[in-house]
Every structure is written in structure tokens, then in C-alpha cells.
Amino acid sequence: MKTLKRVLIVEDDTIIASGLVYALEQEGYDVVHSKNVSEAAITISNGAFDLALLDMQLPDGTGFDVREKIKTDTAVIFLTVVDDEGNIVRAFEGGADDYITKPFRLRELLARVKRTLGKKDKSNGAGRPLLMIGNVTIDTAAGKAYTGKALLDLTALEYRLLLTFAQNKGQMLSRSQILESIWDSAGNFVEDNTLTAYIKRLREKLGDALNIETVRGLGYRVD
């Protein structure tokens, strides 16, 4: 029997929450709802989830507070009424896989849930939890990367950037392709020089373990 994907919803608006629970259950997901950070902490301690839908603003904290309590292999989508670049960047740096602004269309949210879980299965499944690139080992199940036995201190976005290179080893990736992979959108709200800064920071942390080659005027490649 196929195991149902478990989804945690942390949302204090009971009308929104009840609609999400019903819709996701109709799609075949095992859904648990918590109204605030403290409830979510108890729920998380009692079981693992494949995906968490986190309201950004909660009565006793924020969705970021809940994100810190969730295992790194749980996909996260933030729900927010605030559509500004600062919160979006912070969400992705905090490990988010996607975000959606309220009010949202239910069909769009369901599509994003399906896509996010599909990407999670692809990166963690098929008996290949480890990716090797250069002298770097990526444990996709744990969301960690190592040089030798040393754990790399990467932000969530730096990890996603490294994972993108590993999954496209030997291929030239344009800047737009990389931005799409990192932000899971067209990247229009991110200035292009942001990518340059993250690649520079990643290169510094990797040292001689991996060479990220600049293909002038085109993009980047890792062999």
C-alpha cells in the first residue's frame, strides 16, 4: 500500500486552514493542522512531515520560528500577505522551497505543493542519496555537504546553488537557469548581481574542493 505524503499546515486563520485541509485531503495527502508556533512544535516532535505550509505571521511568532524546528529534509512553502523582496529573500535563505502570497488561488497552491514534493522525491530518491562533485559530497537526504569528512557551513541558498551544479555536472548553466533553479521562479524579483555574490561566497567556502568555472558572457559550469 502506498504511503500518503504527510503535510503540516501552520495557519491561525481557521477558515483558510479548513479549506486547505479539505483540499489537500481530497488530493490524497495526510494533513495535520496547527494554529500557532507552540502547537506546531508539539506536532513536529511527534512525527516527520514531507511538506510544511507555514503562515509567515502567527499569534506567537513567525513561520521562520516553525521552520527552525522542522527537519532539513522537509520541504517548506511559506504563505504570506507580505510580497516584498526582503521577506522573500529571507524565506529562501531560511530553507524555503517556495512561497505564495495571500490571497491565493487554491489550484495554484495545490500545483505548487505537487511540484515541490515531486522535486523533493527526485533529489532524495532512486537509491541515490549522495551526490559527488569534485571533492565535495552532498547528502541530499540530510541537506548537508562535506569536503572529506568536514561539514560545509552553507546557507540554505548556497546549498541549493551547490546542488544545482551537482545535478547538472559538466553542463553550462546560464545565469537565468541558475536563478530559476534556486528561486523556483523566473527570478525577476532578484537582481542579477545577487547571483554573482552568492557564487563568490560559495567559491570561498569550497576552496580547492570544487572549481566553479565562469563561462564568460554565458554562465557557469562545474565538471
Describe the structure.
The structure is a single chain. With 223 residues, this protein is an alpha/beta fold. It is built from eight helices and 14 strands. The strands form four sheets. A five-stranded parallel β-sheet has the order 2-1-3-6-7, with helices on both faces. A four-stranded antiparallel β-sheet has the order 8-9-10-11, with helices on one face. Strands 12-14-13 form a three-stranded antiparallel β-sheet. A hairpin with a 2-residue loop joins strand 8 and strand 9 (136-139). Helix 6 (156-167) crosses helix 8 (192-206). It is elongated. Mean pLDDT is 84; it is low at 184-189.
Taking the alpha carbons of the first and last residues, their distance comes to 41 Å
Tally of DSSP β-strands: 14
Instruction: Enumerate how many helices there are, as a single number.
Output: 8
Secondary-structure content class: alpha/beta
Radius of gyration: 18 Å
Percent of residues in β-strands: 15-25%
Major β-sheet strand ordering: 2-1-3-6-7
| Mean pLDDT over all positions | 84
The SSE string, one letter per element, is EHEHEEEHEHEHEEEEHEHHEE
Helix content: 40-55%
What general outline do the C-alpha atoms trace? elongated
Q: Could you give a short account of the major beta sheet?
A: 5 strands, parallel
Unreliable runs: 184-189
Question: What are the salient characteristics of this protein?
Answer:
223 residues; alpha/beta; 23% strand
